[in-house]
Amino acid sequence: MLDIKSMSMIITGGCTGLGYGMAKQFSEKGARITICGRRPEKVEEAGASLGKNVRAIVADVTKEDDRNKIVKEAINHGKKIDVLVNNAGNMYRGKIDELKEDKLMEIFNSNVVAGMMLLGKVKNYLKESKGVNIFIGSVHNRRAFPGASPYAATKGALETLTKVLAAELGEDKIRVNCVVPGAIFTEINQRAGIYDDETAKKRLDSMARIHAMGRIGKPHEIAEAVEYLICAEWTTGAVLDVDGGLGLGITED
Ligand code: NAD
C-alpha cells in the first residue's frame, strides 16, 4: 500500500463538500494539495481554513487557460503530481422534453469533458509519478431518479471512462479508479437552485430508511474510499460504491 503523506494532488472543486473533505483529510496527513473553484470568496475561505499544505486557486475546469493554471500551480506547490481527483461537478435536472441544449452541454462539459481534458494535460506528470486519476461517480447510476437524466448520464460516462482509461493508461503505469458516493449533504443541489438548504437536508434525512446502514453519509467517508483507491497499487479500473447500501435498491414488503 502506498502512503499519501508525500504525494502532490489536484482536487478539482475542492473548496466545498466532498472535495473539501478530501483536501482536509489528505493535507492533515502531509500531502500537498491544490484545490480550485470558480467563486473567489469560497476559494479564499477554503484556503484560509485548510492550512499551508493546501493551495486554493480560482479556476474553472471547463476553461483551457484555467486548466493550464491549475497544473502550473500544482507543480509550483507540490513539485510533481501524483494524483488527480476529478471531483468538480454540477447538477442539472428536468424532464426529457423540457431540457435545454445549452444546459445539457454545460453539465457534460463540467462533469465529463473538463475532467478528460485535465487528465490528458497531467498524463505525463502521472506517468512520471506512477500516479492515479480518481473520478467521482454517483448513486444516480444505481437508483433511477426521474428527472435526473442529465446528471445520471454524465456520471455513467465517468464509470465507462474509468474502465477504458484504466486500460489505455496501464502501459504508463497510471491507474484510473472511481468512487461512487451515495447521499451526502453538500451544496450541489442548492447551487443548481433545486432546493434550499433546509429542504435539501430534510429530503436527505427522509432517505435514511432506504439505506442498509440506516443513514446518509459524511464527507470523510468518501475521502476514506478515495484514499484507499489512491494507495492500492494493484487496483485500477475499479468502481467502488460508498453509499451505506442506498444503491442496493432495498424494497419494503
Ligand atoms: P459541492 O457543490 O459542494 O462541490 C462541487 C464543487 O465543484 C463546488 O465547489 C463547485 O463550485 C465546484 N465546481 C463545479 N463546477 C466547477 C468548474 N467548472 N470549475 C471549478 N469548480 C467547479 O457538491 P459535492 O456533493 O461535494 O460534489 C462533489 C462531487 O461529488 C461532484 O462530482 C458530485 O457530482 C459528486 N457526488 C455528490 C453526492 C452527494 O450526495 N453530495 C453524491 C454523489 C456524487
Domain count: 1
Sheet with most strands: strand arrangement? 3-2-1-4-5-6-7
**What is the average of the pLDDT values?**
98
Structural class: alpha/beta
Number of strands: 7
Helix content bin: 40-55%
CATH architecture identity: 3-Layer(aba) Sandwich
The topology string of helices and strands comes to EHEHEHEHEHEHHHE
> Within the CATH hierarchy, at the fold level, what is the topology?
Rossmann fold
How does this model look, in words?
This protein is of the alpha/beta class. Helices cover 45% and strands 14% of the residues. It has one domain (4-243): 3-Layer(aba) Sandwich (Rossmann fold), CATH 3.40.50.720. A 7-stranded parallel beta sheet has the order 3-2-1-4-5-6-7, with helices on both faces. Helix 4 (101-129) links the parallel strand 4 (83-86) and strand 5. Helix 1 (17-28) crosses helix 8 and helix 3 (64-78) runs parallel beside helix 4 (101-129). The protein is globular. Bound molecules: nicotinamide-adenine-dinucleotide. Nicotinamide-adenine-dinucleotide binds next to helix 1, strand 2 and helix 6. Nicotinamide-adenine-dinucleotide is lined by residues 12-13, 15-19, 36-38, 60-62, 87-90, 110, 136, 138-139, 181, 183-184, 186-188, 191.
